[in-house]
Amino acid sequence: MEPFTFNKNARDSEIPYELLLLADETTEAIDQYIFNSEIYLLHDGAENIAVMALHKNNDTELELKNIAVIESYRSKGIGGILINKAKEIARENKYKILTVGTSDTGFQQIRFYEKNGFVKTGIRKDFFIENYPAPIYENGLQIRDMVILEFPLF
After folding, report:
1. Coil, strand, or helix at residue 75?
2. Hey, is 1 helix, strand or coil?
3. What is the distance between the alpha carbons of residues 53 and 131, in angstroms, rounded to a whole number?
4. Confidence category of residue 57, pLDDT binned at 50, 70, 90
5. What is the mean pLDDT of residues 54-58?
6. Mean pLDDT of the chain
7. How far apart are CA 33 and CA 53, in angstroms?
8. Burial of 25 by CB count in 10 Å (0-12 exposed, 13-18 middle, 19+ buried)?
9. Hey, which of 16, 90, 94, 134 would disulfide with 62, CB 3.0 to 4.6 Å?
10. In what helix (H) or strand (E) does residue 92 lie, and over which residues does it extend?
11. What average pLDDT score do residues 16-20 get?
12. Helix H or strand E segment including 80
């Protein structure tokens, strides 16, 4: 039996910013989507080890807005568990596409999504320049654009 438990965070529960901030730069950025998203947590016993936030873009598209795993659990398949749960939730709710956006310099993240069946479908030019107050750097490069990836559910 899998030692982890997975559950939806109740609307009146505290928002797990400490986990969400592992994948997003600021609480202000998180606040732009989190109040209209469903939050899911993965636990190992009483410890929250991972989070994902799913947002309904429209009747056919569900977006993975945030996915994060605490450092001590990384490279152990936890991200894949969350992706599979997101796909399951999307299918159960009759969405046709699961989409995600990540930074153009997030080479590891892009590989992760592609390994999990996502394909690149677009670029949001200057997204990180226009939506964050200060420059953000990853892998020694300034993040500018958002890479959009999709997983077809049908």
Report:
1. coil
2. coil
3. 19
4. very high
5. 97
6. 94
7. 9
8. middle
9. 90
10. helix 78-92
11. 97
12. helix 78-92
- 54-88: buried (b, 16+ CB within 10 Å) or exposed (e) per residue? bbeeeeebbbbbbbbbbeebeeeebbebbbebbbe
DSSP secondary structure string for all residues of 107-131: HHHHHHHHHTT-EEEEEETTHHHHH
Its pTM stands at 0.91
**What is the number of other CB atoms lying within 10 angstroms of the CB of residue 27?**
12
Assign residue 126 a region: left if phi > 0, alpha if psi is -120 to 50, beta otherwise?
A: left
Q: Which two tokens stand for residue 146?
A: 């958002």
CA 59 – CA 79 distance, rounded (Å)? 25
Residue 1's pLDDT is what? 38
Radius of gyration of the chain measured on its C-alpha atoms: 15
104-136 residue pLDDT tens = 999 999 999 999 999 999 999 999 999 888 899
pLDDT at 42: 96
Q: Answer for the pair 69, 22: CB distance below 8 angstroms, yes or no.
A: yes
Structure tokens at 85: 């749960």
> 44, exposed or middle or buried, with CB in 10 Å at 0-12, 13-18, 19+?
middle
